Amino acid sequence: MSEVASDIVSAGRLRVAVQADDPLRRNALCRVVAEAGHMIVDEYDAADIVLADGRHPPNELRNVVGLGIADDRLRGALSRDADPRQIDAAIRAVAAGLIVRTPAVRETGFGAMGESEGHPLLTPREIDVLAALAEGMTNKAIARRLDISLHTVKFHVESLFRKLGARTRTEAVTKAAERRRSDIIML
């Protein structure tokens, strides 16, 4: 780190450019940066650090702290919901020449899978399994009713959880019912 950069970091006041597509998000991030005692600048070239939300600035990879950006070339990477303390610490660390990464957050369930245009989200067999779940049936009872193996039932239940973004059987049934209601067109 250069002597000038060292002096800036030790003084505690950094020049930070904030990049966010959403104006409300940009204002909130500017407020976080200002409350941490840093100066907001509009030009990337005049900044010590760039705080980027969602995507990194074009042609800008040096001294960037990205929020919700999965790019290993960035010096700093935080989750999009990082708190002000974490953002300030990452800005200071990257300015000091360090690399900042938040540990991957491990979910205990399955993430929701996006639905492609024009294709049904659930297979016919998944719908059969979902109907049996709604009746409160066990995996063993579902396997007997549908004449499939217990392993296949478990596979379909896990697939339902992933596609619906659910963690439990009850949540899967509830989310499917909500989805069905939202898909109904009122005339």
Concise overview:
With 187 residues, the chain is of the alpha/beta class.
What does this 3D model show about the protein?
A 6-stranded parallel β-sheet has the order 2-1-3-4-5-6, covered by helices on one side. It has 187 residues and is an alpha/beta fold. The radius of gyration is 24 Å and the shape is elongated. Strand 5, helix 3 and strand 6 form a beta-alpha-beta unit. Helix 4 packs across helix 7. The chain has 2 domains: 99 residues, Rossmann fold (3-Layer(aba) Sandwich); 60 residues, Winged helix-like DNA-binding domain superfamily/Winged helix DNA-binding domain (Arc Repressor Mutant, subunit A, Orthogonal Bundle). The protein is 44% helix and 11% strand.
Topology:
Elements: H1 3-11, E1 15-19, H2 23-35, E2 39-40, E3 49-53, E4 64-67, E5 76-78, H3 84-95, E6 100-101, H4 124-134, H5 139-146, H6 150-164, H7 169-183
Parallel strand pairs: 1-2, 1-3, 3-4, 4-5, 5-6
